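The record is given unchanged here:
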Amino acid sequence: MHPSERTFFRRGVTSGSQLLDARAFQQACRGGALSLGECRHGIPLRWGPRLAWPTQPDFGPISKPLSTREQSLLNQIRNDPVINWRRYGQCQYDWGGWKLHVNGTRSTAADCGGTAMRWQVAVSCERLLVATLSKDGKWSNWKRPAGPDSKLREGEDEMVAALCANVSD
């Protein structure tokens, strides 16, 4: 038990609780109402009808304060999106950014360089088809993934195979 917990209990907690007498505590231990650890190290306490646990006990700091450098790294971890790009052919796909949609399809960002730069791709693993989001915000029709003969999206078929092999629908 943490020292601040002991102090908290010894102060009487609140009017909704009271310490048990030693005989009642020993009886609860012998009868199995309390665990061996509670009997060996615990403080006997009986809770009142309305109090289950104090709302915000002061248990002190959990860890030492962070240095400026540690705080900076923590902020970076918490604020930076996880981007894990994988290359298939001449295109890269944000592998950590796949989103599952209600219809069972998945979408993520893709980058094939050139004028398209960054765009969205959707994959239907059930049908092994892909669709892309145009600049005007409309999805293309579903089509077979482009293979090694494609000049624009070579390796798209390998991306679909890698994604769908790891998906359990």
User: Anything to note?
Assistant: The two ends are 46 Å apart (CA to CA).
